[in-house]
Amino acid sequence: MPEQLHARVQHCYQLAEDFFQRRFVLPEVSFRLRGQKAGVAHLTENLLRFNPRLYAENREDFLLQTVPHEVAHLIAHQVFGARIQPHGSEWQSIMLGVYGLQPKRCHDYAIERRPRTSYVYLCRCDERNEFPFSAQRHALVAKGRRYYCRRCEQTLRFSGRQQQT
Predict the structure, then answer these.
(1) For residue 83, what are the CA distances in angstroms to 32, 137, 156?
(2) Model confidence at 39, in pLDDT bands (50, 70, 90)?
(3) Which parts of the sequence belong to the SprT-like domain (predicted)?
């Protein structure tokens, strides 16, 4: 795990301890997050997961915003309990009062979307009406699951065609 990120997590915890005048158990930190999320706080496990690709591409803002954002979730959970809203007033007050940051719900990092393959299914009632299935749904059909046309209630069948979306 990158040393700067680990140091930033520790610094955020130190600021929270100074602010609330109490100790907090440092979380486990993982770099095993993929996709569009920059970070995730697992409240009951006291675990922070970060996206290594987004960290590498946005290091400065990631350390400034994303790390405190996720740490604030864990601190809010420990201070205010489990029944608070994820980005509610308690979390916002930590972002502003402890870290001096605007409480932004989402990052604005550039995300490269991977092309996805769709499997084209058809119905006998109208061959022009195509039903694009995801790879997961297509695999379920291969295992025996059936999907039906809402108009004629016939089983949809694979056309043999794939398309990139």
Answers:
(1) 27, 35, 44
(2) very high
(3) 7-159
pLDDT in tens, 65-124: 999 999 999 999 999 999 999 999 999 999 999 999 999 999 989 887 777 899 999 998
Question: Model-level pTM greater than 0.70?
Answer: yes
Q: How many CA atoms lie within 13 A of 83 on its CB side?
A: 0
Residue pair 90/79 in contact by the 8 Å Cβ criterion: yes
List, by residue number, the catalytic residues: 70
Residue 138 has what pLDDT?
A: 96
Domains in the chain and their CATH numbers?
A: 3-97 (3.30.2010.10), 117-164 (no CATH)
